[in-house]
From TrEMBL, chain A:
Residues 143-322 form the FAD-binding PCMH-type domain. It catalyses: (R)-malate + A = oxaloacetate + AH2; (R)-2-hydroxyglutarate + A = 2-oxoglutarate + AH2. Belongs to the FAD-binding oxidoreductase/transferase type 4 family. It is found in: Mitochondrion. The gene is LOC104610558. InterPro entries: FAD-bd_oxidored_4_C, FAD-bd_PCMH, FAD-bd_PCMH-like_sf, FAD-bd_PCMH_sub1, FAD-bd_PCMH_sub2, FAD-linked_Oxase-like_C, FAD-oxidored/transferase_4, Oxid_FAD_bind_N. GO terms for molecular function: (R)-2-hydroxyglutarate dehydrogenase activity; FAD binding; metal ion binding. Its EC number is 1.1.99.39. The keyword Flavoprotein applies. Keywords: FAD, Flavoprotein, Metal-binding, Mitochondrion, Oxidoreductase, Transit peptide, Zinc. GO terms for biological process: malate metabolic process. This is D-2-hydroxyglutarate dehydrogenase, mitochondrial. PANTHER family: D-2-HYDROXYGLUTARATE DEHYDROGENASE, MITOCHONDRIAL. Gene3D superfamilies: 3.30.465.10, 3.30.70.2190, 3.30.70.2740, Uridine Diphospho-n-acetylenolpyruvylglucosamine Reductase, domain 2, Vanillyl-alcohol Oxidase, Chain A, domain 4.
From TrEMBL, chain B:
Residues 23-213 form the Electron transfer flavoprotein alpha/beta-subunit N-terminal domain. The lineage of its organism: Eukaryota, Viridiplantae, Streptophyta, Embryophyta, Tracheophyta. Its main location: mitochondrion. It comes from Nelumbo nucifera (Sacred lotus). It is found in: Mitochondrion matrix. GO terms for biological process: carboxylic acid catabolic process. InterPro entries: ET-Flavoprotein_bsu_CS, ETF_a/b_N, ETF_b, ETF_beta_N, Rossmann-like_a/b/a_fold. GO terms for cellular component: mitochondrial matrix. Heterodimer of an alpha and a beta subunit. Keywords: Electron transport, Mitochondrion, Transport. It holds the Pfam family ETF. This is Electron transfer flavoprotein subunit beta.
Length: 575, 251
């Protein structure tokens, strides 16, 4: 906590100067007396009305908690000011990330540690500073928690015992897998106990006839794929993080990936799940049946719940036969309209063999060429406005290649493609994929990145990138790339360092824009911590209320991955 | 001056190969096949020489079953002008390939014959040297740099040898085999793929070339290398020293 004191002063100063003219004196007083805490909201509906009213106010471009502040000023009650605790700031010191540690959670003590050691054994209870450091920081280095304990259970039974204990003791926990999430959902916010399922990495069974794989949640995606390759099968999802991400995490975040356009969502591919609830109950939903219409399909709740409803311990997933022929084309288009038309044509002409359709713009290409090693421009010497990656997978190599080449040549004659290359062997294909898959990595290497993952109607998708460029000016690098085939844009703003004034121009403009076009503010990355308070941009208040009820039902003490996914004012209403 | 480039269709470099259950060879059915990486580099060098104006035509040659045509198509898509496919259903070993290449060279009369230094399936590293011997042409193998002088009709070749780099000056016509660091092969662009559709692939047989293909090598058995034993975790330095001394006998 001490580490953040310096940033807190800066924040206090900047926040007070920012709002001096705008806010009532009450607000300032409460900032100074309570040490810049804020109270969480109460009942949803009146709050939401306040919320939307606040949108219209002048300071709407600034951080959310302060917006909450002004909205709730009138309803401010003494009870909440009593719950003053430590303040957590994100490592880049943004004002927008002011959260208060929920005081109803207990603090870890040595009895707890001893109890865990009894359950797991000495080796799997980690208090070592260095190992805790990696577990406390997310992949982008953007979110940092201060957990003092990392647990590594090796079986569902151990997870159950840990959670049962934590529930009775009211200790908050963070389920963690590969820690490759991009919205801060996999790391603690304060001192939550980290439960890392990485040691549960056994493959339980695989049926070669049906292609159904049953494995533990800690299996790394790439390892599962390697195992399946030997049997002639493949995982239905593929993402850049495959070397580190674990299947439990993939399922909990309903990961999309590069082959979504062909194999669909995990909601369809996951046939069964074993999850442990907050009170230690093991829910065995580990079916291996394609069709099972007996009662409510509970596992769907857990898929995409980001660890807030239960910890996934085993997954049963439908895999597909590995297609023997893969073809990849890396194409250049001169404008976004051509990309859209190309997608239409590809879906029509390539049909069943189309397995991936990705796009990236010229700024993305330039960034990758600058920051990634061993990457070269497939279409030298110029940088085109847009690049499209089309992958086909099928069973007959020469037939697929002919089909793809015929399609490409016709599209080129039709003016949709400016230029393009077709990979002639697996190495060339990997190097083209590296350009698209390495974008996240290149962005992290380039410095600070503001990352947004939006689902938008395809015609409008690139407009947000252009508008953001106008809004932020020439000096900021705004990149647009993503899964064009699924209508999923990854909007990234890359800068040498984080800067709150830039953030203020980006948020909430990007969310409002998305909401206006009826898009999703998180297509596949999830809400995590980053967008925990933004769900209203994409979901109605009533649906959010039902979500909160479900959360309350399955996790009454709220110990599973607190402060994330659902808005704080709903998760922690005043009693 | 014409340049002839020999290319081979092999199992793709990135594929995990498996040995056939009867141990007669490597599993090649249902496995991705591509142009040998060293042959790609050879073709790229030929194309660069042509683009520099020092050659008029690049001819790609491949020998084997009908599917070799796919590899030749890739060569044409990279920029070769025409291709020759020597149809031979039987497996060809380096000496046979060298004899066939000599016959083709006698017909086409190129000024330069460029090959990859070795094929990644058999790792023989023999064809280039053998064909140079049969033709009685000078050879520059493991080339990492090639500079052509048209007037003097010489090629200066920098070779990667065990001790470092050796520079040779070869009178043309000559045989050059290429090594990894010579260049980075280009990708097959769509316009070139389009042009390749109209380029000619001529088919010949060994009989037409008056070459008798004898199998002078016979593969007796192919088996996988012994599996690596799992590592052993030791719990202390003393145990490590004990193991090094008494089990591994290295200290």
């Amino acid at each position: 906590m001490e580490k953040w004191r310096i940033s807190r002063h800066i924040v206090k100063r900047s926040s007070t100067s920012l709002f001096k003219s705008l806010l009532s004196t009450n607000f300032e007083k409460s900032i100074n007396t309570s040490g810049s805490t804020y109270k969480s909201g109460r009942n949803c509906n009146p709050y939401v009305e306040h919320y939307f009213q606040c949108q219209k106010r002048h300071f709407q471009t600034c951080c959310h908690p302060l917006r909450d502040y002004t909205g709730n000023l009138h309803a401010s009650k003494a009870t909440n000011l009593e719950h003053i605790c430590r303040i957590q700031y994100k490592s880049f010191g943004s004002v927008a990330t002011q959260i208060q540690r929920n005081p109803s959670f207990s603090t870890l003590n040595s009895d707890d540690v001893d109890h865990f050691k009894k359950i797991l054994g000495e080796k799997n209870v980690i208090q070592d500073e260095d190992r805790l450091l990696t577990a406390n920081v997310d992949w982008m280095g953007k979110y940092k928690g201060s957990s003092k304990l990392l647990l590594q259970p090796r079986s569902t039974e151990e997870v159950s015992q840990i959670l049962k204990y934590c529930n009775t003791r009211c200790l908050a926990v963070v389920p963690q897998g590969g820690n490759t999430g991009l919205v801060g959902g996999s790391v603690p916010v304060f001192d939550e106990v980290i439960i890392n399922v990485g040691s549960m990495n056994h493959i339980i069974s695989f049926d070669e006839v049906s292609g159904i794989l049953v494995c533990e949640a800690g299996c790394i995606l790439e390892n599962l794929d390697s195992f399946l390759v030997n049997h002639g099968f493949m995982m239905p999802l593929d993402l850049g993080a495959k070397g580190s991400c674990q299947i439990g995490g993939n399922v909990s975040t309903n990961a999309g990936g590069l082959h979504f356009v062909r194999y669909g969502s995990l909601h369809g591919n996951v046939l069964g799940l074993e999850a442990v609830l907050a009170n230690g109950t093991v829910l065995d939903m580990l079916g291996t049946l394609r069709k099972d219409n007996t009662g409510y399909d509970l596992k769907q709740l857990f898929i995409g719940s980001e660890g807030s409803l239960g910890i996934a311990t085993k997954v049963s997933i439908l895999t597909s036969p590995k297609p023997s022929s893969k073809n990849l084309a890396f194409l250049a288009c001169k404008d976004y309209l051509s990309c859209q038309k190309l997608l239409q044509e590809a879906k029509r002409k390539l049909g069943e063999i189309l397995s991936a359709f990705e796009f990236l713009d010229s700024q993305s290409m330039e960034l990758v060429l600058t920051h990634l090693e061993g990457v070269r421009n497939p279409l030298p010497p110029s940088i085109y406005e847009f690049y499209v990656l089309i992958e086909t997978r099928g069973t007959d190599e020469s037939y697929d290649k002919e089909k793809l080449e015929a399609f490409l040549l016709r599209s080129m004659e039709g003016g949709l493609i400016a230029d393009g290359v077709v990979a002639q062997d697996i190495n060339q294909a990997s190097s083209f994929w590296r350009i698209r898959e390495g974008l996240s990595e290149a962005l992290v290497k380039a410095g600070a990145v503001y990352k947004y993952d939006l689902s938008l109607p395809i015609e409008k998708m690139y407009s947000i990138v252009e508008e953001m460029r106008l809004r932020l000016g020439q000096s900021e690098k705004v990149l647009g790339y993503g899964h064009l085939g699924d209508g999923n844009l990854h909007l990234n703003i890359s800068r040498p360092n984080y800067d709150d004034s830039v953030l203020a121009k980006i948020e909430p403009f990007v969310y409002e824009w998305t909401s206006k076009h009826r898009g999703s503010i998180s297509a596949e990355h999830g809400l995590g911590l980053m967008k925990a308070n933004e769900i209203h941009y994409s979901k109605s208040p009533q649906t959010v209320q039902v979500m909160a009820s479900i959360k309350k039902l399955l996790d009454p003490n709220g110990i599973l991955n607190p402060y994330k996914v659902l808005p704080h004012n709903i998760l922690y209403p005043e009693a | 001056m014409k340049i002839m480039v020999a290319v081979k269709r092999v199992v793709d470099y990135a594929v995990k190969i498996r040995v056939k259950p009867d141990k007669s060879g490597v599993e090649t059915s249902n496995v991705k096949m591509s142009m040998n990486p060293f042959c790609e580099i050879a073709l790229e060098e030929a194309l660069r020489i042509k683009e520099a104006g020092l050659a008029s035509e690049v001819i790609a040659v491949s020998m084997g079953p009908a599917q070799c045509v796919d590899t030749l198509r890739t060569g044409l898509a990279m920029g070769a002008d025409r291709a020759i496919h020597v149809d031979s259903p039987a497996t060809l070993y380096p000496l046979s390939v060298a004899k066939l290449l000599k016959a083709l060279v006698d017909v086409e009369k190129p000024g330069l014959l460029i090959l990859g230094k070795q094929a990644i399936d058999d790792d023989c590293n023999q064809t280039g040297q053998m064909v140079a011997g049969l033709l009685k042409w000078p050879q520059g193998t493991f080339a990492s740099k090639v500079v052509l002088d048209k007037e003097k009709q010489v090629a200066t070749v920098e070779r990667e040898v065990d001790g470092g780099l050796e520079t040779l000056c070869l009178d043309l016509p000559a045989v050059i085999t290429t090594d990894l660091r010579l260049n980075q092969p280009r990708y097959a662009t769509l316009p070139n793929i389009m042009k390749a559709k109209s380029k000619v692939i001529k088919k010949v047989t060994s009989k037409e070339l008056n070459v008798e293909i004898k199998s002078d090598l016979e593969v007796v058995e192919v088996h996988e290398p012994p599996k690596r034993k799992a590592g052993v975790m030791v719990s202390s330095v003393d145990e490590l020293i004990d193991k090094l001394k008494n089990e591994a006998h290295v200290i």
